Amino acid sequence: MAEASTIEVRVNEQLTQLPRRTTLHAIRNQFKPHADLTILNGFPVAADAAVANGDEVILIRRGEIPSPDELEALLVARHSPGVHERLKRSTVGIAGCGGLGSNVAISLARSGVGKLILVDFDLVEPSNLNRQQYFVDQIGLPKVEALAANLGRINPYVDLVLYPLRLTKSAVSQVFDHCAVVVECFDDPAGKAELAFAMRRELPAIPLVAVSGIAGYGPASTITSKRVLGNHFLVGDSVSAAMPGRGLMAPRVSLAAGHQANLVLRLLLGAISEHEGQ
Questions:
Q1: What is the CATH number of the domain that holds 22?
Q2: 3-class DSSP assignment, residue 277
Q3: Which of 131, 138, 202, 237 could be stapled to 146 by a disulfide with Cβ–Cβ 3.0 to 4.6 Å?
Q4: In this structure, are 171 and 209 located in the same domain?
Q5: In this predicted structure, what is the pLDDT of residue 153?
Q6: Taking a C-beta distance cutoff of 8 angstroms, is the pair 53, 86 a contact?
Q7: DSSP for 114-153?
Q8: Shared domain check, 187 and 54
Q9: Range of 27's domain?
Q10: Rounded Cα gap, residues 115 and 178, in angstroms
Q11: For position 80, what pLDDT does the model report?
């Protein structure tokens, strides 16, 4: 049986047909001539070599931002085409960009959610750095602007809408009207209750993912996700409020934010049944 004249090789996550015995040098010249790093099947390689059928080649130019198509191909490869397309078309609102909101936003941006609406009136303070996704040189900046800058470094093609304001009941429907899901990430109990009430009254069809009880350093297993009312969900242990000796700390805040982001993805992808968690 004659040997096939071509092989299939995945180059920067794009499947392509190449002549048999094509070398890494030839692939670099064809697809990314200025690349200064070649990764073959997960390992950096310096020497030229022929590739085989089924090999995966990643070509990187240090410091270069991938094009929208190239970045999307990389995300699709990790999330699968059907999943990525649904996330890319989705809009998620994040009320509060502190410890929870900044972590949730980063998870959703990395996951390929196409549009994020960020709402927060606050500035980055030194005390925020123990749990929030900001940096020392961002102290004093509006949180929505600092978070947008950080998200832009992770996924520059996410559409970001910024509201540097204190969210009131009257503004909820205007800000979140076109969202598929809204995430409540407030510290203030009154603000939490106000947002939940406004969502039930003004936007009852939009799921809300809220949080309660995440302070301290208690067992990770007590942070859970559950449906509490209709399409409203609650993350946390419902009892661990912040107080002297039990502050808000990065690990538990990150755990809760991970639960929230995971719930958002499950809602966007239709992975939660109508009666789940009731």
A1: 3.10.20.30
A2: coil
A3: 138
A4: yes
A5: 94
A6: no
A7: SEEEEE---B--GGGGGTSS--GGGTTSBHHHHHHHHHHH
A8: no
A9: 6-64
A10: 10
A11: 77
